[in-house]
Amino acid sequence: MRYFLESKIIRLLIAALILILVACGVVTNFVIADKVDNPVVTSHKISKFAKMMTRPGYTDMRLIDTKAQIILGVKAEGNIKFLDFEENTIKELEGFNGIGTQNGDLIEIKNKKGSTVINYKDVLEGQAYDKKVYDKVQLSSNGKYYIGYSTLLNAPDGHDYEVLKADGTKILSNKNTVSFLGTGDFVSLDKDGDGLNESIVRLSDLKTLKKFDAGFSVRNKAGDNWIIRCETNSKNLSKSETYYVLADQNFSVKYDLGIFGTLKLSSDGNYIIGKKLIGYNSVPSTEELEKSAKIVYVVMDLSGKTLYESNEQRNNSWYSGEVEFLDVVNGILRFEEYGNDNKYKYLNLKELGKGTRVFSYKIDRGKAFSILDIMDGIQVVNKEVDKSFGIVDFSTTMNLSFYDNSDNKWMEDFEWAFVDENNELICDYMFRGAYPTQDGYAVVKTGEYWHLIKFK
Amino acid sequence: MKRVRLNNLTQLDKVIITNLKMIENEIGIVCCLSLCALFSFLMIMLIVGIPFEVALAIYFLIKAYKKVFYTSIYGETAIFYNALPINPKDMVVGKITAVFIGTLIYTVVSILCFIPFLNIWQIIRESLNWAPLNNSNAVLLTAALSLELLSLLAVSLAMITVVFLCVSLYMENKALRIPYFRKGLFIAFGFIVSETILNIATLADAVGIKYGLYIPVLQIVAAIGVTYFAGKKTIAVFDNKGNRG
């Protein structure tokens, strides 16, 4: 050792190496290491699962009720079978060959003529299921009602709409468009067939809550409020005056918010995000809008007071530095800034005026993120394209880490594996309908085979 | 500007400086080649330039190795070098240290030049088999990074020593005198075998051993061991040569 240390060059070399190591340690601590302190989303942790049943010969299969252990399977020859988890047939419906949407006990079933809706519990109890077949059906998301639409009912006038209760009792019919509002306790009706809905009806007592002179459309609902877009003159749409109102849950107008290009409630229900047109008292034609309209994005509280607004910019121009306000969750405004590298930026509206900090991170165009939740300043985001998850930490700097299907980094926590009875891996790709139920069951298809699986 | 001089240099220092002078051209060239990477934003540079640059860098690095380990001892300049009053220990340690310093300079310059184009965080996450550390704490990651860096340096030192040992064994042991074109293969074989043995992290990963901080530590110990024994063996080769001579 002394032999080496006597050499001045080796001493210098050792000093240089120590310096490099220290520099690396510092860089790691300040630049890299803070990225590893993000918590990992563990609520979606799914490990291997066991196969419970495997059968060929079905064109479709749907898990209907895991507690009652009921599966609905469509046989290739055109029958629908209710099966238990051992594939014993509980009930068979003839003349149907497809399954549509399901909400609660209601299931849309299809044949060549169209769709009908059954209450599967009633069907299993032996009640009649020979409901009317419509061209299309729409189930309310609360599972209480459905709308049947058919051009056959009133052929000379074209289409007709019927609103029915879950048990098949007709409660309302309308010649023109009927659509559910929100989860389905209300419907909006087009009475005169001009393509614009004018009335809102509460389905529980069939009371008409609101009648608009001209058209209206419900923009969205968040919290206890609705944003409604109203037309004052339905005859000349391109020049009609369009204004927005904020209504309570029974559609009584709370505030007239005025003229905007677009307006919506933030997903937390506490803010209104809008695109304000500069120099127009009414909404100009689309062409005019594209060419010359100037806009500012605004974020308002529920009384319509502007809290924050963007710089003036051209409508739909996406020039570098221009922005689009997207959503507010927990008082944090998310907006996208255009440029060579598009960025999502975040602004805490609760801290406005206190030396506002705007956080940003780079995104790839076409990869949209939506906010799932905010926990202690950590935002959990969902990349809508392929259902991957990310975490954004507002509390320090803007740290973002993602679980990506193409990148195995979080795969250990999110891995989907398909195993046989001996726990041997068969295939490990995401297959049709593999999203599991709350209690960990899923019906999946690989090749010709359908499998009922239970996550461990 | 007054030139800074190192006074009271030991014999070893003088050997290191002499050998560094031998390869300063080559190291300078490979460092300049690395600077070319800064132009990688040009697509043509990325497709054509980088492979060309890497090939040239390898050529000049081999040239540097050859100058230090072969030409100065057995080649055309041997007559001058062998006339210097240097004992075998100083010669071996000096040559290995000089090449190590040269390689270190080149590596540091290359990394600095490539940093603008590399996602360092991504590389760190995805390489070196330390996936288990990804979501652990910062202190552990810092320790792992430092240990990995140390192990890389130790392995590179071991490689250099093994290459020198291979060259000297080949040249001094007549039994090993195989045809000229196989000389390169013999050295490459020694290089690859030691590289394989020393790449403990990859070996551990291949047999399914979970990554832990003990892996780079083991790697450092193994590399230092290889350096020590290969160095000792090389000195012994030159000692014998001196006795014979």
Fold and architecture overview:
- The complex is a heterodimer of chains A (456) and B (245).
- In chain A, 10% of the residues lie in helices and 47% in strands.
- Chain A is mostly beta strands.
- In chain A, the strands form nine sheets. A seven-stranded antiparallel beta sheet of chain A has the order 13-14-15-16-17-18-19, with no helix packed on it.
- The model of chain A is unreliable at 34-48, 361-379 and 383-434 (pLDDT under 50).
- By secondary structure, chain B is mainly α.
- Helix content of chain B is 75%, strand content 0%.
- Chain B contains nine helices and no strands.
- In chain B, helix 1 (11-36) packs parallel to helix 4 (88-114), helix 4 packs across helix 6 (138-172) and helix 4 runs antiparallel to helix 9.
- The longest helix of chain B has 35 residues, at 138-172.
- The radius of gyration of chain B is 20 Å and the shape is globular.
- Chain A binds chain B through residues 3-4, 6-10, 13, 16-17, 20-21, 24-25, 28-29, 32-38, 40, 409, 412, and chain B through 6, 8-10, 12-13, 16-17, 89, 93, 97, 100-101, 104, 108, 120-121, 124-126, 131, 133-139, 141-142, 145-146, 149-150, 153.
